DNA sequence: TTTCTGACA
DNA sequence: TGTCAGTA
């Protein structure tokens, strides 16, 4: 089983997650209601959180402590998800280029390198700074 | 016993 | 956000 799958595996009840994140069960349920997290449910309708969910909630907790409101947190989480997807897309393209490089002509190689250079300016955009976050503060 | 939803402050 | 009621 892959590591990614382990992180997405539904394991913990809300009491454990509450301890892990230092958030109250009330808060965690509220954040779920606001679609900030999406824990799976057990047969008895009990919430089951994965490592991924816990990471997310810890991130939420950090932003709450910094005074970011829910709308802002939603934006930040969306950006973080996009970054994850972009990183995976980048890895994917790097992986593919390894195979393609075997029998590329010089011209094709130049085109590939040029494309990667252009893309890197977009993929390596700096992480969120204080300025970007400031508009989410009260 | 623990967790769930809904409701009130 | 905390807390209480009534359930499952």
Automatic annotation (TrEMBL):
Q: Reply yes or no: does the keyword Transcription apply.
A: yes
Which residues are in the HTH merR-type domain?
Answer: 11-79
| InterPro entries referenced in this protein's UniProt entry, alphabetically | DNA-bd_dom_put_sf, MerR-type_HTH_dom, MerR_fam
Which SMART domains would you find in this protein's record? HTH_MERR
Domain of life of the native organism: Bacteria
| CDD domains, A to Z | HTH_GlnR-like (cd01105)
One Gene Ontology molecular-function label: DNA binding
**Ligase in keyword set:** no
A UniProt-annotated Pfam family? MerR_1
Keyword annotations of the record: DNA-binding, Repressor, Transcription, Transcription regulation
* Region of interest: Disordered: 84-103
Q: Which PANTHER family does UniProt cross-reference here?
A: HTH-TYPE TRANSCRIPTIONAL REGULATOR TNRA, REDOX-CYCLING DRUG-SENSING TRANSCRIPTIONAL ACTIVATOR SOXR
Identify this protein by name: MerR family transcriptional regulator, glutamine synthetase repressor
Organism equals: Piscibacillus halophilus
Biological classification of the source: Bacteria, Bacillati, Bacillota, Bacilli, Bacillales
